[in-house]
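Quick illustration, no need to memorize.
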Amino acid sequence: MGGTPSIGGRTVGWDNTAPANDDSAGLGDDEFRSFKTSIQTLVDAEHEFSTTGGANSGRHRPGSAMPYSDLQSRVSAGDLEGRLYYASDTSRLFALGAQTSDATNFIGGRNVVENSARQHSVDGTTNDTGARNLIWAQESGLETIVNGGASITFDTAYGAIPHVVSSVWTEGGSPNPPTTLYTALSTTGFNTSTRYIPTSGADTTSLPSLGTLMWQSLGTRAI
């Protein structure tokens, strides 16, 4: 076979009953050549297999290896070690390790946020920076400020302390701009305390009478 064939299937004639018991022995050389040609045609579809062999015979052609595809719930099912696994229901891609030792690694997906934030400490607890078999997850929302504060519970707990940012706007109570401090931050949520930023001669103790906290959290969760 000359040149580099495209990858994919091949149409090959195959008959397990040939040669028949009563076929002429003199036709054996034709049968051998036909058999070798059929095997080469099949293997050469996605592997290097030239008519003269060579050092690269049997090697996968670029792009020929297809990832395994199934539901994510079956990621760890069966003899799949060493495979790329595409979860058809979540559009996530995994590299599967040994089921008895190495954990399955999450590679990416269509809704993945790639994070490169530096590790730092909040309330004495180290923030999450990501690890194998984890996905980066993001939540956001609006919360009404009541008595100068708000309490937020994440829809789903993070695996470690997430990174949280917020902003606040208020109406009435003071002409000064507000600021928000975290009074508690955990894997399940956080509390805030909102005060007006003091200025010379201004009220430094009043609480916002009406306000909205806008927040966003980013952290990791186990698959």
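Residues 28-43 form the longest helix (16 residues).
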